[in-house]
Amino acid sequence: MMRLVPVLLLFIAGVLPASAVRGQPANEAPRIQYWVHASPSLTTLGTGGSMGLTLEADRHVFSLRVASTDPTPGHETWDVGVLYGRALFVRAFTFSASTGVAVVSGRRYTTLFGNGPGSDLETMIGFPLEGTITWSVARALALGVRGFANVNTGQPFGGLGMTVQVGRIR
Q1: Residue 136 C-beta-side C-alpha neighbours within 13 Å
Q2: What is the tens place of the pLDDT at every residue in 23-77?
Q3: Which uninterrupted H or E stretch holds 6?
Q4: DSSP per residue, 33-96
């Protein structure tokens, strides 16, 4: 897992900003888009998901995200994070990658995949990662795949699932 973090950071720092070079013309204001998302997912600790609010302006992506590893409150590991990333638009498809900082709490297990009895996880700081590929079905609706993770010292977790975005979308 720790070997994956440098690869993701290089991807965010290197590939996505290079694709955003053409930007908006000098006399045109950036087009601002915003949406909410819900993503039921399979996570490292079972069925869970994420939801959040995202603002995108000139390929800069700002998100407030909540991720959880279980739909039942009290049995999950969760985070609430603020993320920044970059987006690439190809026709009706959007590719994005983000990272940030989050508050993490919930349950701690002896293994990454939650085997054995759990114990309470002290609230701590974690580093969320998120990647999405979406297809704009309509002006206000997009469907796709969302992957998320949180790297922390207590209970790292991640998930992959389908996503639905509703809002002002490209």
Answers
A1: 16
A2: 555 567 778 999 999 999 999 988 999 999 999 999 999 999 999 998 876 678 9
A3: helix 4-10
A4: EEEEEEEEEEETTEEEEEEEEEEEETTEEEEEEEEES-SSTTS-EEEEEEEEEEEEEETTEEEE
114, 123, 146, 154 from 40: Cα distances, Å: 19, 24, 9, 23
Q: Provide the CATH number for the domain around residue 49.
A: 2.40.160.20
Instruction: Specify if 120 maps to a domain.
Output: no
pLDDT in tens, 72-82: 766 789 999 99
Give the CA dihedral 63, 162, 74, 152, nearest 10 degrees.
-50
Query: Could you tell me if residue 10 is inside a domain?
Result: yes
Q: What is the pTM of this model?
A: 0.79
Q: How many domains does the chain have?
A: 1
Q: Give the tokens for residue 144.
A: 């796709």
97: its two tokens: 């990658």
Quick check: is 117 in a domain? Answer: no
Domain membership of residue 116 (yes or no) is no
Tokens of residue 94, six digits: 């959007």
Q: Does residue 17 sit in helix, strand or coil?
A: helix
> One-letter amino acid identity for 14?
G
Please tell me whether residue 125 adopts helix, strand or coil conformation.
strand
